[in-house]
């Protein structure tokens, strides 16, 4: 025969539960979250990034991309500065990319970079003369060969087919980018690089917001004491920033793209910046392969 519980039983049970809770550690969840096994991995960030970019079918379908808009170039070197307006076009077909900016200025007609899948080429400002960013890109061509420059704007974006790139990724924690928390991913090309390459993905949306390339070139030994003293260490930093994401062809792509080259030496430095607003997007259009070799123009 079942005994009828007295009204005190529920109160006693509640008191027992409260006592048990008081005896347990007060922050068990924090202790679990701190375990290394539960940390965010680079693979987790990239998987969420691809989801944010668009459905897998849409990512696979967009084999070629043509993006165009306006570009504003801003140059600062010591006491001088200037700005000019022009146009920008970025076209890609699989891992091939051409990136061009055109300005109506005789001393700065623009920039042209091309990778045809095998060879990387850079255009000239005047016969035999390239810009600072042109020389940097030519020396560090992996930034184009790996499909990094331009971010998700190009079909060469390495995370669309990372298994073929065979690059190594390393999660670097979080950092603020324009007052928003972002996950840091360190990128190591399979063939190596003299650059320190770091990519940033918004911690909430997982959209790609920045790529940073850094390189330090040490001072070279001169032929005599005077020449050695004049040699300087040079620090290079390129920053790409992406924002104003909107849907284009079922993909969420940036409509704001900023590119910056900072060069620092003991005797001074320079800061070159290009601010681009993108408003024309086309997909799956045929692109002549000759476009990807800018020296052939």
Can you characterise this structure?
The chain has about 300 residues and is α+β, with helices and mostly antiparallel strands. It has one domain: Clam (outer membrane lipoprotein receptor (LolB), chain A). About 20% of the residues lie in helices and about 45% in strands. It is built from eight helices and twelve strands. It has a twelve-stranded antiparallel beta sheet with strand order 5-4-3-2-1-12-11-10-9-8-7-6, with helices on one face. A hairpin with a 4-residue loop joins strand 4 and strand 5. It is globular, with a radius of gyration of 26 Å. The model is unreliable at about 1-40 (pLDDT under 50).
What brief labels describe this structure?
twelve-stranded antiparallel sheet, alpha+beta, 297 residues, outer membrane lipoprotein receptor (LolB), chain A, 43% strand, 21% helix, 8 helices, globular
Concise structural overview:
This protein has helices at 8-23, 28-33, 42-53, 56-61, 132-139, 142-145, 162-165, 225-230; strands at residues 64-77, 80-93, 96-103, 110-115, 120-122, 168-177, 180-188, 196-202, 208-217, 234-248, 251-265, 268-283. It is an alpha+beta fold and 297 residues long.
């Amino acid at each position: 025969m079942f005994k009828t519980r007295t009204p005190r039983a529920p109160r006693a049970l509640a008191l027992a539960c409260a006592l048990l809770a008081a005896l347990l550690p007060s922050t068990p969840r924090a202790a679990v979250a701190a375990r290394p096994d539960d940390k965010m991995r680079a693979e987790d960030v990239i998987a969420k990034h691809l989801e944010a970019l668009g459905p897998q079918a849409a990512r696979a379908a967009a084999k070629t991309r043509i993006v165009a808009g306006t570009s504003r170039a801003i140059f600062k070197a010591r006491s001088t500065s200037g700005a000019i307006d022009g146009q920008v076009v970025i076209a890609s077909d699989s891992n091939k990319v051409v990136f061009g900016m055109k300005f109506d200025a005789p001393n700065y007609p623009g920039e042209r970079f091309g990778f045809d899948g095998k060879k990387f080429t850079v255009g000239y400002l005047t016969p035999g003369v390239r810009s600072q960013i042109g020389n940097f890109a030519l020396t560090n061509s992996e930034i184009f060969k790996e499909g990094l420059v331009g971010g998700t704007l190009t079909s060469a974006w390495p995370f669309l087919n990372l298994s073929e790139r065979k690059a190594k990724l390393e999660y670097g924690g979080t950092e603020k980018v324009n007052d928003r928390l972002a996950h840091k991913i360190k990128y190591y090309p399979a063939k190596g690089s003299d650059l320190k390459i770091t990519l940033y993905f918004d911690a909430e949306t997982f959209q790609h917001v920045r790529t940073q390339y850094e390189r330090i070139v040490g001072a070279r030994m001169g032929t005599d004491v005077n020449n050695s003293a004049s040699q300087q260490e040079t620090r290079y930093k390129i920053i790409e920033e992406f924002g104003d994401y909107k849907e284009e062809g079922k993909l969420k792509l940036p409509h704001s793209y900023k590119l910056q080259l900072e060069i620092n030496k003991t005797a001074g430095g320079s800061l070159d910046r290009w601010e681009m607003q993108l408003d024309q997007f086309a997909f799956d259009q045929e692109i002549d392969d000759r476009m990807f070799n800018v020296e052939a123009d």
